[in-house]
Each structure stands twice: as C-alpha cells, then as structure tokens.
Amino acid sequence: MSGFTKPGSNPAAAKLLLFFCRHHVPLIGRLYKLMLNCDIFCDLRNRKVIMPHPYGIIIHSKTQIGQGVVIMQQVTLGGRQLGVNEAPIIEDDVYIGAGAKVLGHVRIGKNAVVGANAVVTRDVPAGATVVGANRILSPEPEAPKGSNGNGRIVRLAK
Q1: Mean per-residue pLDDT for 54-78?
Q2: Is residue 56's pLDDT more than 80?
Q3: Which of 51, 109, 115, 153 is the most exposed place for a label (fewest CB within 10 A)?
Q4: Is the residue at 155 inside a domain?
Q5: Tell me, what CATH number does 113's domain have?
Q6: Residue-level pLDDT at 87
Q7: Average pLDDT of the chain?
Q8: Torsion of the alpha carbons at 127, 103, 122 and 124, rounded to the nearest 10
Q9: Average pLDDT estimate for 106-118
C-alpha cells in the first residue's frame, strides 16, 4: 500500500483527472486525459468516485454513476453498438475491477462487485458479483453455522 493516500481516497493523478472532468477545462484537461489514456465524458459533479489507478479508463457520456463507486484501471463503461446511444447505470458503492467492460444499457446494482476482466452485458442485482462473461454470483444469504460460505450461481450467460 502506498503511503501517499489514505484508503478510500484518490491519488493526486486521479484528483487532477476528476477536477478536469468536473470543470470541463478544455485544452489542459484534454492533454492530461491523453497522457493518462482516458476518455471520461460523463457528468461526475457531486459524485464521490474513487480511481486508485486512473489509467486507460473509458466512460460514455450517458453513463450514470452513483456515490462511492470504485473504478480500477483499464475499465470501459460504454455502449455495445456503434450508432446506438446507450450506456450503463452504475448504482452506489459498486466496485469495478481492473480491465472490466460494462457494455450497453445495463444496471449494476448497489454494492455489486464486477471482477477483473469481467464482461457485463446484462443487469446485475444489488450485492451480486460478476466474473468472466456475464457469470453472476448471488450474494450469500445468512449462511447456516458450519457452511463453507460460498455464493451460488444464479444465472449464466447462454
């Protein structure tokens, strides 16, 4: 862990990136986004978004992002088809792992986890975990004493 930032806060590179996104600084902001290889066009004003490694992040202009969302490096939040203006809805306290792709008009529920390199093209219920290509693991209800605590698969991509 780095000694420069406390857990749950953004490093300097992400703070600067979010400043340029929120205030629409034209030339310097675009150059900084180019340097970080980021294209972030959605409205992030009044949103607490945490980007521990703000490199290679692509966010569609119509994407809606809730409070307390963690977005790791190389994440894409965008449309599935060219010419169709649709984007994901990310609810509060969602964790999106490195390299994940959330595509199309899908909703990621509150407290959900999108695993590293996951591809999501279907809605994800609140508290669920997504791994691989649309493999959605349900949140574990109160497990009986002595159980192994593993989630169960509720829906698989066809």
Answers
A1: 95
A2: yes
A3: 153
A4: no
A5: 2.160.10.10
A6: 94
A7: 86
A8: 10
A9: 97
- Rounded to 5 degrees, φ, ψ at 103 are -120, 135
In a domain, 150, yes or no: no
d(CA 19, CA 44) in angstroms, rounded, equals 9
In a domain, 4, yes or no: no
In terms of Cα–Cα distance, which of 74, 61, 69 is closest to 117? 74
Q: How far is CA 59 from CA 2, 83, 113, in A?
A: 26, 16, 18
Question: What is the pLDDT confidence band of residue 3, given thresholds at 50, 70 and 90?
Answer: very low
80, pLDDT greater than 70: yes
Side-chain-side CA neighbours of residue 43 (13 Å): 4
Number of domains in the chain: 1
In a domain, 72, yes or no: yes
Whether 83 has a pLDDT exceeding 50, the answer reads: yes
Domain span holding position 38: 12-139
- Indicate the pLDDT class of residue 26, thresholds 50, 70 and 90: confident
Q: How many CA atoms lie within 13 A of 122 on its CB side?
A: 16
List strands edge to edge, sheet with 95-96.
49-50, 69-71, 95-96, 113-114, 129-131, 135-137, 153-155
Contact present, 115 and 135 (Cβ < 8 Å): no
**59 CB-near residues (< 8 Å, 6+ apart):** 39, 40, 41, 42, 65, 71, 77, 78
